[in-house]
Design goal:
Blueprint (H helix, E strand, L loop, with lengths): L19 H12 L5 H7 L3 H5 E4 L2 E4 L7 H13 L2 H9 L26 E2 L2 E2 L1 H20 L12 E5 L6 H9 L9 E5 L4 H8 L7 E6 L6 H17 L5 H6 E5 L2 H7 L6 E3 L16 H7 L1 H20 L6 H15 L4 E7 L6 H13 L17 E3 L11 H6 L6 E6 L7 H20 L3 H6 L7 H4 L7 E6 L4 H22 L8 H17 L10 H13 L5
Helix pairs in contact: 1-4, 4-14, 6-12, 7-12, 7-15, 12-13, 13-20, 14-20, 15-20, 21-22
Length: about 550
């Protein structure tokens, strides 16, 4: 018998796997066995002409994938049968497509032009978005110009964003990506981990008189953030003889929870709001980006938003065959559901994009790591791909061996920038040469014959063969500017959306992370109790708690 709370696996049978396009793709995947990227290029040497696309200063090459025209046609059929364009339009129209929380999903409104009209429950949300952006810009100008000072009248030199997940990864990634646009007078740091070492190392060399904290939390309930915010408050009070007036000059908040912010002691005048229709992992272009705006200035932040919007328009208006995020999402479905890939590598060939893989991990895995459909039925197919990666060329000397000669299928995204941003421009040539070479080597490998021709000793040949046929997308940006970064992030946001629609899941909730949070609250009490607590966990957890208590000299 199925309990009321458990999910019904039987009812999903006629779902996605029953669609004609899904079944045709499954047959097609069988027929395609033995077809390699090399054989596809041999048959059609100019296939890049049809399989590379350009928008928003980005050249996106899909030709090194295990796809034919038929594969693409069937994937587009699947998109059509899953009604992706209708779902996309519903998102842009402010419909409550986050069904488990009954919320609209409108990160696209965060970068809509001032005169756009996007309504939720009959109310145009765009003027509110621009009111907050204007306040952020005004505040940023005051801090950057030195008009806003710390408690002792000294200018602010360091901004520390305290937040986690969506309230950390976006601004952290974008700050690093846009470092060349940040002026020397103000730098940003990021504290996220509840491990006190994070706060201590971030503040070790700082002068409280010149430090401003931005506490970012959509819910204002997040343990890590509130704990670090309290540590920061104490750090400021310790520096200013417990004068609570200092808090107003050294703390601002970003949240949707005005009451929580006021209760914490931050002046609501110093709070920048956003809305429940912005998911945490989709919020870097809301007030959550305040640390970034402070670092790069309001004008560059406006450019970032323009880049997001430009890609939104591409996604909203381009027909499916040329719609880049849509095609990217479909390719991931192809590998995930029909070719058995479990993971997807993200390999930025840009030091500035160092934090992109971590950012995309949350975007993709918190969005699409779901096991039930929108209607609450258990899926009978794979969902969310595992995202991982590191900037090139470091990864080449760590894990690329497995990509080239291992037994697992790992589709990869190579992301590079044509225009160098560092002064060492010859090194940029080396960097990009490596990116192109890796994608080529993965796709085409090196055969026994080629090795023999090159005079490789016979006994080494099996060890040195690279089979190739390892698929990848190459994204080449003309430059890494705020505008381009906005477009790049929007590209991934919409790709994730497409996957979620095909998998028929709610990409905008994250109930799975709640259980661990609840258990941690109970266990914290058990770890710190003065007397030995009555433990009612499993034997493994009970023992770990006892051992920790013993190590901290607490009675067990
Ligand atoms: O990890 C769960 C989560 O709720 C994320 O979705 C979110 O980005 C993060 O915690 C931080 O939440 P908040 O911004 O509410 O502090």
């Amino acid at each position: 018998m199925t309990s009321a709370r458990s999910v019904d696996r039987s009812r999903s049978a006629a779902g996605r796997r029953g669609l004609p396009a899904w079944q045709a793709l499954a047959r097609h995947a069988d027929e395609q066995q033995g077809v390699t990227v090399r054989s596809l290029f041999d048959q059609d040497p100019d296939r890049t002409r049809d399989l590379a696309f350009e928008t928003c200063g980005m050249y996106v090459d899909f030709s090194k994938h295990r796809i034919t025209r038929t594969t693409l046609r069937l994937l587009l059929d699947l998109a059509q049968q899953c009604e992706v364009t209708q779902r996309r339009d519903a998102m842009f129209a402010g419909e409550k497509i986050n069904v488990s929380e009954q919320r609209a999903v409108l990160h696209v409104a965060l970068r809509a032009p001032r005169d756009a009209v996007i309504t939720v429950d009959g109310h145009n949300v765009v003027p509110g978005v621009h009111r907050v952006l204007d306040r952020m810009a005004d505040f940023s100008r005051r801090v950057r110009s030195g008009e806003w000072t710390g408690h002792t009248g000294r200018r602010i030199h360091t901004v520390i964003n305290i937040g986690i997940g969506g309230s950390d990864l976006g601004p952290r990634m974008a700050y690093q990506a846009l470092l060349p646009y940040a002026g020397p007078q103000l730098s940003a740091r990021f504290v996220s981990n509840v491990d006190g070492a994070d706060f201590v190392t971030a503040t070790a060399d700082l002068d409280p008189a010149e430090t401003l904290f931005i506490v970012s939390s959509k819910s204002w309930h997040t343990l890590e953030t509130l704990t670090n915010a309290r540590a920061a408050r104490q750090w400021i009070l310790d520096a200013f003889g417990s004068d609570t007036a200092a808090v107003a000059k050294h703390f601002v908040a970003v949240s949707t929870n005005a009451e929580g912010v006021a209760e914490f002691g931050i002046d609501p005048q110093n709070m920048f709001g956003f809305w429940d229709w912005v998911g945490g992992r989709y919020s870097m272009d809301s007030a959550v980006g305040l640390s970034l705006m402070l670092a790069i200035g309001p004008d560059q932040f406006t450019e970032l938003l323009a880049g997001f919007h430009e890609l939104d328009e591409h996604f909203r208006t381009t027909r499916p065959e040329h719609n880049i995020p849509l095609l990217m999402g479909l390719l991931e479905v192809w590998y995930n559901n029909f070719l058995g890939a479990q993971t997807q590598a993200v390999l930025p060939y840009s030091h500035y994009l160092e934090h992109l893989p971590s950012y995309l991990q949350q975007l993709e895995m918190e969005s699409n790591g779901k096991h039930v459909t929108l209607a609450g039925h258990h899926v009978d197919y794979q969902t969310g791909q595992i995202i991982w990666g590191q900037p090139g060329t470091n990864g080449q000397h760590a894990f690329y061996q497995l990509l080239h000669q291992g037994t697992k299928l790992v589709p990869a995204d190579f992301i590079g920038v044509a225009e160098p941003l560092s002064k060492l421009t010859e090194q940029h040539d080396l960097l990009l040469a490596n990116m192109f070479a890796q994608a080529e080597a993965l796709a085409f490998g090196r055969s026994e014959d080629q090795l023999r021709e090159a005079g490789v000793p016979e006994e080494q040949i099996p060890h040195r063969v690279c089979e190739g046929n390892r698929p990848s997308t190459t994204v080449l940006l003309d430059r890494l500017s705020p505008r381009r970064l906005g477009s790049l992030i929007a590209l991934y946001e919409h790709k994730v959306f497409i996957e979620g629609v095909i998998w028929d899941i709610d990409s905008f909730d994250q109930w799975g992370v709640e259980l661990g949070k609840i258990l941690a609250t109970t266990i914290t009490d058990e770890l710190i109790a003065d007397n030995p607590p009555a433990l009612a966990h499993d034997s493994s957890t009970n023992e770990l708690i006892r051992r920790y208590r013993a190590a901290r000299n607490r009675p067990i």
